Request: fold
Amino acid sequence: MKRHVKTATQVTGLALTLGLVGSAVANETLDVVTDPSFVPFEMMDQESGEMVGFDMDIIAAVAERAGFDYELETMDFNGIIPAVQTGNVDVAIAGITITEERAEIVDFSDPYYDSGLKILVRADEEGIEEIEDLEGKTVATKVGSTSYDYLQENLGDNAEITPYPGSSDMYMALLGGSADAVFYDAPNVSYFAQTRGEGRAKVVGPLYEGQQYGIVFVKGSEWVEPTNEALAEMREDGTYDEIHEKWFGSDSDE
Reply:
C-alpha cells in the first residue's frame, strides 16, 4: 500500500506581494515507510483508510518543521531496515529500537520515545510472572524485532519461540491458545491489554531491556540533523506532549 502524504508548503503573503510565487522552491519529497500494525504508533483507520497513530503524528510534525514532504508506504516490519539500508526508501518510522547493530547500516535520529519489553499472558494465567517462567512455554513475538533477539539470547532452546509477521497474529495466537505468552514492546502489549484484550489478557512482570525508538534514515542522510532539531523544538514548545497525550495519556515521561 502506498499513500501520498504531503505537508503544507505555504507561500507567505510577502512572497505573493513581491511576485515570487514562480520562484518558490518546493520541498523535497521523501519516501517514508511504516509498519501497518504497531498500535497505537501506526495503524489503519478502517473508516478513512488512512494510517493514524503516534508515529504518524510525529512524522507529520517533523516533516513540517524540517522542511520535507513525504509519500507514505507500509510493509512488514521485518523488511523495513533492509528497505532503508538499500535506499529503496528514505525514512522509516515504526517504533524502531535504536541498536548498535542497526546503527551500522542506517542512521537514527535522536530518540523520540522510551520503551522496553513486556510479557503478556491470558487473563487466567497464574504461572507466568517473569522471563524465567517462559522456559518450556510457547512464546509469540514479532519477526525481526528486538524482542525476538532478546528471547533467543535469554531462553534459546529452553522455550518454543514463534515469530509472527504481524502484531495481530501473535495476539490471536495467545488468545486462541497456540501460545502461552507474548513477549514484545511494552507500549504495544499494554495498549492491546487495555483495548481488544481487555478482560482476556494481562501484562505481567518487570520491564525488560530499556529501549529507545528513533526515526531511521539512509546512511549519510542530510535529513538527520533537521529532524533532530525538529524533535527538540517539539519537546520545547509542547507539541510532543500534545501528541503523546492524544495516544497514551498525559504523562510523557516514559
